[in-house]
Design goal:
mainly alpha; Methane Monooxygenase Hydroxylase, Chain G, domain 1; 6 helices; elongated
Length: 215
């Protein structure tokens, strides 16, 4: 019975890794589309979200089967419960990437006055957080999970820098106000992705220790 449970848990881990890879792909494609003002790539990035939704359903089904068929003990129950919580945040990460692409499509008809360099830096930081948070779950790596939670400060600092850049852009020319607001919204989506990756790592910590860092 335990061997069967371990096999199904391994499938769950593999599917979580696949969903994490889809999140990373969506963020990367959305960012490339934004920087290049590539409308076709932006549309493709939005389509990735549909695959992400399908993975969410697969993981939920796997978790329910494990709960109903295997009667997991306390530690295993925490792992499965954490996975169910994690996929909600991963699905939202996919939504945020699609939202970035949606705004990119709107902005393709406007020449950028200034695309702050810190927005792509935010994208790289959030991809790292998503990757590390899923890896922390699969490897049961508490130190890695906690490092992701701490790394969210990097994303928050970058967001504040982007905000300052865009305020300066408006000061230079008030006619840039609408574009600055759109770019600020994009930066906010990246900031939210960082928050969701933090949530994932907090659930990883709960799965490992039995204590959620937020009590």
């Amino acid at each position: 019975m335990r061997n069967k449970f371990d096999e199904q848990l391994s499938v769950l881990n593999e599917t979580l890794i696949e969903m994490g890879a889809l999140c990373e792909r969506g963020i990367a494609m959305a960012t490339k589309a934004l920087c290049e003002q590539n409308i076709e790539l932006a549309k493709q990035a939005i389509e990735v979200e549909q695959d992400n939704d399908q993975k969410e359903k697969e993981i939920e089904d796997l978790c329910i089967k494990l709960l109903l068929q295997q009667q997991p003990v306390a530690g295993d129950l925490r792992l499965i419960s954490a996975a169910l919580k994690m996929v909600t945040d991963m699905e939202r990460i996919g939504d945020q990437a699609a939202d970035i692409s949606g705004l990119t499509i709107y902005l393709t008809n406007h020449t950028y006055t200034k695309l702050t360099e810190h927005i792509p830096q935010m994208a790289l930081a959030t991809v790292k957080m998503v990757n590390d948070s899923v890896e922390a779950y699969v490897k049961k790596d508490l130190a890695l999970a906690r490092s992701v939670i701490k790394y969210d400060d990097v994303v928050d600092d970058l967001f504040n820098t982007v905000k300052s850049d865009l305020i300066e852009m408006i000061r230079e020319d008030s006619g840039n106000g609408e574009q600055a607001i759109d770019l600020l919204m994009i930066a906010k989506y990246y900031e939210r992705i960082g928050d969701h990756a933090t949530n994932i790592s907090e659930w990883v910590e709960y799965a490992i220790t039995g204590v959620h860092p937020k009590g």
